[in-house]
Write a structure and sequence with these properties.
The chain is an alpha/beta fold and 188 residues long. It has four helices and eight strands. It is 27% helix and 27% strand. The mean pLDDT is 91.
Length: 188
């Protein structure tokens, strides 16, 4: 695998380049197709900001493979987080947009990195404010472990075990205006 160029931090270690990300998302698209025979009932709901882009890319791969347009949406979790009152800064609230109704549909929550599981729990709360889907599944580009809640992804691009002093940074062309890459950064 061709490694992306090093970032400015000397403690950043590249773990995925653009091609590795593309392959991982294409594999996730195949897995979603296999587990969801009624693709017209699937909604890919991305968590802003990179989860939205990842959901759109997965939808495009599904279209390439099966010639079916899977609906995508945005599910903002800012006001559903359990730490909203303890943060130093107010969260940035974005508009959630989901194709309705959700009943009898499978909503696949899509995010870039899964860590404690608290963001996913907030996403499920937000989804339930729009309706009651028949199933909720989870797709992530990176699973770094360290769960605080009993949440497990259904689709994973890459398992990347980390320590407490490491962070996973995902950059995507559309959101960061830099080439796609995943970096593991070690804090001093």
């Amino acid at each position: 695998m061709k490694q992306p160029k090093q970032r400015t931090s000397s403690t950043a270690v590249p773990t995925m380049d653009a091609e590795a990300i593309r392959r991982a998302l294409q594999r996730i698209a195949h897995e979603i197709i296999e587990r969801n025979p009624q693709l017209t009932h699937v909604v890919l709901a991305g968590i802003p900001s990179r989860g939205v882009e990842i959901a759109q890319r997965i939808a495009a791969f599904i279209h390439q493979i099966r010639k079916i347009n899977v609906e995508t949406g945005v599910i903002d979790v800012a006001m559903h987080r359990d730490d909203v009152g303890t943060r130093f800064e107010l969260p940035i609230v974005r508009e959630s947009k989901l194709p309705l109704p959700l009943e009898e549909r499978t909503v696949v929550v899509v995010d870039d990195v899964l860590y404690t599981g608290r963001t996913v729990r907030a996403a499920m709360d937000a989804i339930n404010s729009f309706g009651r889907p028949s199933r909720i599944q989870l797709a992530v580009l990176i699973d770094r472990g360290h769960r605080e809640l009993p949440i497990r992804p259904d689709y994973v691009g890459k398992n990347l075990p980390t320590s407490g002093n490491e962070k996973v940074k995902v950059q995507l062309q559309e959101t960061d205006e830099k080439p796609d890459a995943v970096w593991l950064e070690r804090e001093p």
